[in-house]
Automatic annotation (TrEMBL), chain A:
Alphabetized UniProt keyword annotations: ATP-binding, Nucleotide-binding, Transport
Record-level Gene Ontology MF annotations: ATP binding
InterPro entries on file: AAA+_ATPase, ABC_transp_ATP-bind, ABC_transporter-like_ATP-bd, ABC_transporter-like_CS, Oligopep_ABC_C, P-loop_NTPase
Membrane topology, record value: Peripheral membrane protein
PROSITE patterns, alphabetized: ABC_TRANSPORTER_1 (PS00211), ABC_TRANSPORTER_2 (PS50893)
Official protein name in the record: Peptide/nickel transport system ATP-binding protein
UniProtKB/TrEMBL annotation, chain B:
Lineage of the organism: Bacteria, Pseudomonadati, Pseudomonadota, Alphaproteobacteria, Hyphomicrobiales
Organism: Pseudovibrio ascidiaceicola
Name by which UniProt lists this protein: Peptide/nickel transport system permease protein
UniProt keyword list: Cell membrane, Membrane, Transmembrane, Transmembrane helix, Transport
Localization annotation: Cell membrane
Similarity comment: family membership: Belongs to the binding-protein-dependent transport system permease family.
Bilayer-spanning residue ranges: 9-30, 100-118, 130-158, 178-199, 247-271, 291-315
Membrane protein topology class: Multi-pass membrane protein
Domain ABC transmembrane type-1 residues, every copy: 94-312
PANTHER family documented for this protein: ABC TRANSPORTER PERMEASE PROTEIN, DIPEPTIDE TRANSPORT SYSTEM PERMEASE PROTEIN DPPB-RELATED
Main localization, broad class: membrane
Length: 575, 326
């Protein structure tokens, strides 16, 4: 008898014009002590299923058809008040972003005790003791002391532990975790996944984990349901689904996950996805404006040579200079990048990789050290003309495709702006022609020029960013986590596009990512960063096959991967 | 915390010093005080003697120092028109203005906050729509017009409430006359307080509504619901407190302007407060009163801002000095 049973669930969002069906005829069930994974890309309807179970569908969503049973009792038709009493007591929920899931103005103790006393008949002091006990169970050191603190005094991973403690307050039978580790670093992710698995077994909870990450599915779940555009396309034991997927969508989705273990030349595309960018008109780069007049002198030695770059941020100001406190974001970092190669920087959040990108592009001024680009010292550039010429040669692609484009400008103006600013074309019609060609070349088509950024999906916006970066005819691209906000299938397309452009234009790239698998596929050489220090630089293949630094080894071992599943299989076969 | 407050007080002192400088410059540049004080027949010798007596021939810095020293001891000189110490004149009228401002601030907060919460939570109910449209009228009509409407309706037509003055007052000690302790005093304050507070009420309501809409979309509210917390606790403990920081900023500034700029309401209702005193001072170029009023207004704003800054820290733990992150 399964604890949670979803039968024929169809959720609809009626709007003025038509009805949007977010999930269609979904059948799922979870047993106590088991973990079910629901996987899919954005818009697949996986979160909708979770929200429907806990009765928190956003307006105007409603369950159009189907039933949800909790331990034999039908719950989808309960009155609002009885449903509320179920939430937290019998069904717990964990959200994606631990930084925003807790009320910032109340102590952890207040939030825990409030929830515990709501569901369990305990006195204040008993509830507090229970809360301390829970914090201890989820692995928070010194719970007695830390319970009195506010959420902002906890790190991201610790906050997610608090969120888990809150979800488990009243010993629920079912826990729904919506992207529980997406916002976390790999090492923290591994810890949280382990914790969830342990709690699931200890407390005999049925868990539903909603995620886009195949690695999490492989590491954590017993069963998996694959969703695509509201439909459940495949459902079965994780081993079987991941090992021998039957549905073509599952097959291409699994194929699109970047492999950390082997380097492939190009990423396999998820060909099941409709509307993936077909190459529009291909431009002969060698005769085009983009390729022509790339009048850069070739350089002897490295194109970019960074030596002992140090960067400090003021954390506490004071009138007396020795009382000021600094955070060292970069600590004597040195590396070089040769023309035509892709150099990777990998590390967890706060390791200083993005700061490095900003120092190189001149957004930050370092406290010490030098950076030479094509033989020219970057950090001390004063002459405005030289700064401009430097900016033209280096362009940046940012992580968040939603905030890196001006939402009030048309795409044509966004891409044309750098051309006009650097006076790279003489007439307006020439500028327009270049913009059209660029948009074609990155796979958007001319029609995109007249639209505004919000009319595009994340992947398409990232293509706009790339077109904008190419508009100055740069020779050096800094890509700061260019695909970490995108779905795997889109990620594959964007990374392929970057590779193609690099081949055609001979671009040199600094590629920053937290994702080791992506780094392996993209980069010739890679540096590993932690706490502002560059720990190790090596050829990417060498780094993955025989890491030298202990931290690199740790990072590699922590990666949840499809590999984990095969390892799991292997262990079982051996046993 | 102590360091924070003392730093804020130091900054407030700097502001007050600058305002004192400006109000002192009023004496130097807005007309010649001697001309204001004496008649046409006064001889140049008499004028010179008066100058000497008033210290107007001393170096500017000495005069400024004397002025600041006086201001610290509440000595702002004598009014030109009343020939009385300015401090006494203001002191006698300050309670009336403070009581009016207090009553209207309470009115604005007590009605504005619940209305804001209600309209924020029930966006589409007809009551919210009514609150919003009525408050739009409140915010777009000028104060004097609303005051006159109230007088016409409640005083002239219905004859429920008095149309002017403070009613009977009771002396509390030698400085404070209060209207809160007599029936006629309480009746008299109703109309002016509502007139003065209507705009602030609308502002607070709309601000809270906007903030509530914002906060209700956040993850921690969703998580609070997912834990099964009842609406009461979600709305009033987790949501409302998170809307407070901007509300306190605006309310603080508005409270300052209620006290400082009650002039129009006081004129309409013939309320014997500072506003009328100030108007008379402007009409008669009574510079000592204007200068003192300027200082007082600045002091009120600086003081309220200090309170607001402290309240921020009390409400939002993230603004407290970092005790080291884990």
């Amino acid at each position: 008898m399964s604890i949670l049973d979803i039968r024929g669930l169809t959720v609809q969002f009626p709007s003025r014009k038509d009805v949007f069906t977010a999930s269609r005829n979904v059948n799922l069930s979870v047993d106590a002590g088991k973990i079910l994974g629901v996987v899919g890309e954005s818009g697949a309807g996986k979160s909708t299923v979770g929200n429907a179970v806990i009765g928190l569908l956003e307006n105007p969503g409603r369950i159009a058809e189907g039933e949800i049973h909790l331990d034999g009792q039908r719950i989808d038709n309960l009155a609002a008040e009885s449903m509320r009493k179920l939430r937290g007591k019998r069904i717990g929920m964990i959200f994606q972003d631990p930084l925003t899931s807790l009320d910032p103005l109340q102590t952890i103790e207040f939030q825990l005790v409030e929830t515990i006393r709501l569901h369990l008949p305990l006195s204040k002091s008993e509830a507090r003791a229970h809360a301390v006990d829970l914090l201890d169970q989820v692995g928070i050191p010194n719970p007695e002391e830390r319970i009195a603190q506010y959420p902002h005094q906890f790190s991201g991973g610790m906050r997610q532990r608090v969120v888990i403690a809150l979800a488990l307050c009243a010993d629920p039978e079912v826990v729904i975790a919506d992207e529980p580790t997406t916002a976390l670093d790999v090492s923290i992710q591994a810890q949280i996944l382990k914790l969830m698995k342990r709690l699931c077994e200890e407390k005999n909870v049925a868990m539903v984990v909603i995620t886009h990450d195949m690695g999490v599915i492989a590491d954590l779940t017993d069963h998996v349901a694959v969703m695509y555009r509201g439909d459940l396309v495949e459902y079965g034991e994780s081993k079987q689904v991941l090992g021998a997927p039957k549905h073509p969508y599952t097959q291409s989705l699994i194929a699109a996950v970047p492999r950390p273990d082997v380097k492939v030349h190009r990423f396999p595309q998820v060909d099941y996805i409709e509307g993936s960018a077909k190459p529009f008109k291909q431009i002969d780069i060698s005769t085009h404006w983009l390729g022509k007049a790339r009048d850069y002198k070739s350089v002897d030695g490295p194109l970019l040579d960074v030596k002992d770059i140090t960067m400090k941020f003021l954390t506490k100001d004071a009138w007396i200079s020795k009382n000021r406190q600094y955070f060292t974001a970069l600590d004597k970092v040195s590396f070089d990048i040769h023309a035509g190669e892709t150099f990777g920087l990998v590390g967890e959040s706060g390791s200083g990789k993005s700061t490095m990108a900003r120092v190189i592009t001149g957004l930050y001024h370092p406290a010490g050290g030098t950076a030479h680009f094509a033989g020219q010292e970057l950090t001390s550039l004063k002459d405005k003309k030289q700064v401009l010429s430097m900016r033209r040669q280096m362009q940046m692609i940012f992580q968040d495709p939603f905030s890196s484009l001006n939402s009030r400008m048309r795409v044509r103006d966004i891409v044309a702006e750098p051309i006009k600013f650097h006076k790279l074309a003489s007439t307006n019609s020439e500028v327009n022609q270049i913009v059209d060609d660029l948009l074609e070349h990155v796979g958007l088509g001319v029609a995109a020029a007249a639209k505004f950024p919000h009319e595009f999906s994340g992947g398409q916006r990232q293509r706009i960013s790339i077109a904008r970066a190419l508009a100055t005819r740069p020779r050096f691209l800094v890509c700061d986590e260019p695909t970490s906000a995108l779905d795997v299938s889109i990620q594959a397309q964007i990374l392929n596009l970057l590779k193609d452009l690099q081949d055609e234009l001979g671009l040199t790239m600094l590629f920053i990512s937290h994702d080791l698998a992506v780094i392996r596929q993209m980069c010739n050489r890679t540096g590993v960063m932690r706490h502002g220090q560059l720990l190790e630089v090596a050829d990417t293949e060498e780094l993955f096959d025989s890491p030298k630094h202990a931290y690199t080894k740790e990072l590699l071992s922590l990666m949840p991967s499809m590999d984990g599943l095969s390892r799991q299989n292997l262990e079982e076969e051996l046993a | 915390m102590f360091g924070f407050i003392s730093r804020r007080i130091a900054m407030a002192l700097v502001v007050m010093f600058v305002v004192a400088l400006i109000s002192f410059l009023l004496f130097r540049f807005v007309g010649d005080p001697v001309n204001q004080m004496v008649g046409i027949e006064t001889t140049p010798e008499q004028r010179e003697a008066l100058r000497q007596r008033l210290g107007l021939n001393d170096p500017v810095l000495v005069q400024f120092f004397r002025y600041v020293l006086g201001a610290i001891q509440f000595d702002f000189g004598n009014s030109y028109q009343f020939k009385q110490p300015v401090a006494d004149l203001i002191g006698r009228r300050l309670p009336a203005t403070l009581e009016l401002s207090f009553a209207s601030a309470i009115f604005a907060l007590l009605l504005g906050i619940p209305m804001g919460v209600y309209t924020g939570l029930n966006r589409d109910s007809w009551l919210s729509k009514m609150f919003l449209s009525v408050s739009l009228v409140g915010i777009s009509l000028p104060t004097f017009f609303i005051g006159i409407l109230f007088i016409f309706f409640f005083s002239v037509t219905l004859q429920w409430l008095p149309s002017f003055g403070r009613g009977e007052v009771v002396a509390l000690g030698s400085f404070w006359d209060t209207g809160f302790l007599t029936i006629s005093g309480l009746k008299a304050i109703i109309l002016p307080a509502i007139t003065l507070g209507l705009y602030q009420m609308t502002l607070i309501m709309r601000l809270i509504r906007a903030e509530m809409l914002e906060v209700m979309r956040t993850d921690h509210i969703k998580f609070a619901r997912a834990r099964g917390l009842p609406n009461r606790s979600v709305y009033y403990i987790h949501a409302l407190k998170n809307t407070m920081v901007p509300v306190i900023t605006i309310t603080g500034l508005q409270l300052g302007s209620i006290i400082a700029f009650a002039i129009i309401t006081e004129t309409v209702f013939q309320w014997p407060g500072m506003g009328i005193l100030f108007l008379q001072a402007v009409q008669n170029v009574d510079i000592p009163i204007m200068a003192a009023y300027l200082l007082l207004t600045a002091f009120i704003f600086v003081f309220i801002n200090l309170i607001v800054d402290i309240l921020y820290v009390v409400i939002d733990p993230r603004l407290r000095t970092e005790r080291g992150r884990a």
